[in-house]
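worker-3 :: picked AttH domain-containing protein
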Amino acid sequence: MKDFPRDEKSYFNSRLMSLCVFLLSFLNRVFTVLGLGLPQSGRNHGSASHGGGRLDGRENMGQAKKVLADLAIGKSRAIDPADEDLHSPNREDLNWAETSWWAFANADGDIGGWFYLLTRRNLGVASLGIYIWDGTSANPWDFPYSKHFQHIPLAADFSLLNGSFPEIGAALGVREPLRSYWLRYSDTPHLEFELDFEALVMPQPIGVGESTGHLDQLLWAKGELRFEGRQVRIDGPACRDRTWSTRPEANAGQYNSYAWGATRNGGFHAMMLETPEGQLLFSAGFIWRDGAVVPIEKVKRTVEARGPDGHAIRVRMEMTDREGRVVNLVGSSRSTAALEAFTGSLCWCSVMDWQAEDGPIYRGEDHEGWPHTLLRQARLTGKLPGLGEL
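worker-3 :: tokens ->
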């Protein structure tokens, strides 16, 4: 059995307790900005008459505090093998969603790919985005392959452990919980692939509690893509995340960033949520070095250069973990995709080479999530407050 880097139980205990305290002080502002429609408690939530609608201010605040309380000591827990499969939601919560996102690239980094599944078990439907881009254009209509299936029937017994969508030729599964996975897709003659994933680190939890959960995991992907008469070998770093929570469709989110990178022997992950003025509201992630996975204590992301369309082409990351280890990186974009990961929100996703000051080059990605309203503001004014000029 492969030895994995040391997991820190305090990854979601001490760190997220402090984050909860910080977030609660900004709760009114954050949830107004985020536009979250949080679930009602009891039997009224998600009824046909309400359609899973929003709450009034006091109910919204109470539910928001409950969600944050799930992150506190005593409510958080480690990732369990059972978390690999779909959870059992409140059957009246029509906004309940679970995601399974996978990212991979070829050795040169000019070809990147996503497999992004979202299931709504209570509605009996799923959506799946499958994208392959090659650096010639960030526009999905110019990709070698781009399809977003929006209403796939979800069988009552569908399982992420060995699930398939025969209507579209897609399948995914788990060989060994928390460690080994596979994806398959066949849309002949446009795209076919068989990809296998092995864990580099154990899944890292963020806020796994009573009503919500999120994990991130660095992986190594192997397999082959076949499209446009090309056979593209995949043998390199990859990443996945999973979420389970209530997720209203009318949620464009907030400006955010997500970055990861890895080699066979080390890596990092960082996610950040900011206000339009650049005020940091939330951050999480980890540094994996010398056999230890340690949560980050501080993180700063600076976009040093952007392309003509606005996507980041050079990004500086400065991170310090809770043991005082410092990792400073400069990322250079190899290829970029403009994807709508959330309703009303654009995600600039770039395959990146992250050059560390002390030598290693980590292959990974950099994401910027832009609500369309903020992106339009940036285009009209030429800059976004707190984030610099475009």
